[in-house]
Write a sequence for this structure.
């Protein structure tokens, strides 16, 4: 009698960045079984119509994930585009905040200069731009025939809302099921240490922060972050943010 020999699968933390970063988990437009391609097609069609589009939602509600999921469609419809992600330290001083915002303006405008006519500029985190910076981007887009798709935590003047991301208890349950299905050890540990976790799902608005908390709860070996989308200013798109 013979047996297949397989070494034990290494224990990993299901909430490590390689499992939860944008692009690792497909964006969920809803739990009703609707076809994601239909939602993507509507976003692309509305962006073509309005030219200046906005994906809006709370921090950690899936905006970057949605961008990654529609990247191929954006590239197909608006070739010659560029992508930039902007972040900021929430604990920065007022002076540092102004300096950071001006640097973000310069980075976004420099990136936009590389976008072809009728291409798309994607700005993930447009609330990190100054009002002047957003005006400049809108003006340049109109003059050059470009389209612009941005994300933000709030509505932004001059940009048409294409989609609003939201977090629900059922969405979190679905995402947890997906992340834990191949990690029985982690699932068992969460059941023992966070038995009442599900009762708080309705209060959660930041899924990214939830994954960070659960990473510590599970406490499996540390994995190297692969997000590639960090830092206060990126003069070119991060490694996992594709050219468009």
């Amino acid at each position: 009698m013979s047996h297949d020999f397989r070494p034990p699968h290494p224990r990993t933390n299901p909430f490590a960045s390689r499992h939860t970063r944008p692009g690792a988990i497909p964006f969920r437009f809803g739990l009703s079984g609707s076809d994601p391609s239909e939602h993507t097609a509507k976003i692309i069609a509305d962006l073509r119509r309005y030219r200046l589009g906005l994906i809006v939602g709370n921090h950690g509600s899936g905006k970057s994930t949605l961008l990654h999921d529609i990247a191929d469609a954006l590239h197909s419809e608006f070739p010659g585009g560029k992508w930039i992600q902007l972040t900021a330290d929430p604990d920065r001083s007022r002076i540092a905040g102004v300096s950071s915002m001006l640097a973000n303006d310069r980075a976004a405008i420099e990136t936009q200069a590389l976008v072809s006519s009728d291409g798309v500029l994607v700005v993930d985190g447009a609330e990190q731009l100054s009002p002047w910076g957003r005006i400049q981007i809108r003006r340049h887009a109109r003059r050059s025939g470009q389209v612009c798709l941005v994300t933000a935590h709030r509505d932004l003047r001059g940009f048409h809302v294409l989609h609003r991301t939201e977090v629900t208890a059922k969405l979190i349950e679905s995402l947890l099921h997906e992340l834990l299905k191949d990690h029985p050890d982690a699932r068992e540990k969460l059941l023992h240490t966070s038995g009442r976790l599900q009762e708080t799902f309705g209060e959660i608005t930041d899924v990214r922060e939830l994954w960070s908390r659960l990473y510590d709860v599970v406490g499996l070996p540390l994995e190297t972050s692969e997000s590639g989308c960090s830092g206060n200013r990126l003069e070119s798109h991060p490694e996992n943010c594709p050219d468009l």
In short: Strands lie at 52-56, 82-85, 120-124, 147-152, 160-164.
